[in-house]
Amino acid sequence: MPTLGQLYPQLDSVQLPENLPYTQCSAFELRFLYLLGKHRLTGAQGDLIELGSGGGGSTYAAALGLSENPEFDRSSAKLHAYDFFRVGKGTFATEKFFAGGKAPDGQSSFLEDFQEVLGPFLDFVEIHAGDIWETSDPHEKRPIEFLHVDIAKTARVWTCVAERFLPRLRPGSVLLHQDFAGPRLPWLHYSTGALLPYIEIAGPPIRSTLAFEVTERIPDEVFRAIAEDDFSIEKKIDLISAVQEQIDRDHTDGIPFRSVLELAKAFVLHYEGDHRRAWKIAEPLTDDAYLARTRADHFRQIKAELPAPAPAVRRSTMRRRLGRLARKAGLR
């Protein structure tokens, strides 16, 4: 069985079908999912889970790889696909997930479209449609062999992931964070920092995705701290710094992850209401070409919360005020 890092050299040679379902994952990320399915995952050591399947492109790539893996028993193992499978408030879904690229009038669910494009694999793809707090089992203890996290866009959803899925990781489990290039999601970054003593990062991020394997048993208190967000502000920043020491740029040299993670520190402070300090970290990063091009709205969000500067006092007004104070003091 290859290590995760041994899959990297094959990324350029993978040929996936041209008509894959729409996805917001890059071609490299889809190829990596395919390689994982074909060469690494079996389902024999635990559940195979994708959180945030969207229109099905990433699910299709992983399922295609699994279908070509002689060690995968599609009669018994399952690839679990979780998503709202609808557009609308709180879902972060796009109408491009519909087969025609646009939602039909009066329709918000693209579940039928997902089922249609995943048709060749529906015998082993198990769909969990709806709010993850309602579709996941809080009592499930079965180990997880593979966890693809592309759903933790809010702290609320991340809490569910941290409570119900992370504690099921075991040595040998593989986890992919697809949104690791998102500075607004600092919980992904400092939680990874908390896990560093127990994991091995596969290599440079594959575009936006950080991949790692669990190598040591993760203590229950670490899972508890992550689920309860039981870290001080300074601890969160220190944990992100620890991740910065492990990764620099993505495997194509296009995404400067150390700068991305530095901006994530600013969002830790921003969410805690320390807007001055957040901007102190963020402002120098406006000179980073990648962040300036792709995250301009992030900078505006932080800067907009800065306290308004005190109004300037005209010199004549200041002289009058000083004169009044002097008269009161008997100096004139």
Question: Could you please describe the fold and organization of this structure?
Answer:
With 332 residues, this protein is α/β, with parallel strands linked by helices. It has two domains: 4-230, Rossmann fold, CATH 3.40.50.150; 252-305. It contains 13 helices and seven strands. It has helices at 27-39, 57-67, 111-117, 132-135, 155-164, 186-195, 220-227, 233-244, 257-271, 275-282, 289-294, 296-304, 315-328, and strands at 47-51, 79-83, 125-129, 144-149, 169-177, 199-201, 210-214. The protein has a seven-stranded mixed sheet, with no helix packed on it. Helix 1 (27-39) packs parallel to helix 2 (57-67) and helix 9 packs antiparallel against helix 10 (275-282). The longest helix has 15 residues, at 257-271. The protein is elongated, with a radius of gyration of 24 Å.
Choose one word for the global shape.
elongated
Largest sheet: 7 strands, mixed
Number of distinct helices: 13
**What is the CA-based Rg, rounded?**
24 Å
Give the tally of structural domains: 2
As laid out across the biggest beta sheet, the strand order is 3-2-1-4-5-7-6
Q: Which spans of ≥5 residues are poorly predicted at pLDDT below 50?
A: none
> According to CATH, what is the topology of the largest domain?
Rossmann fold
Fourth-level CATH superfamily of the largest domain:
Vaccinia Virus protein VP39
Q: Helical percent range?
A: 25-40%
Averaged pLDDT, please? Answer: 93
Going by helix content, strand content and strand pairing, the class is alpha/beta
- Give the tally of β-strands: 7
In N-to-C order, the SSE pattern is HEHEHEHEHEHEEHHHHHHH
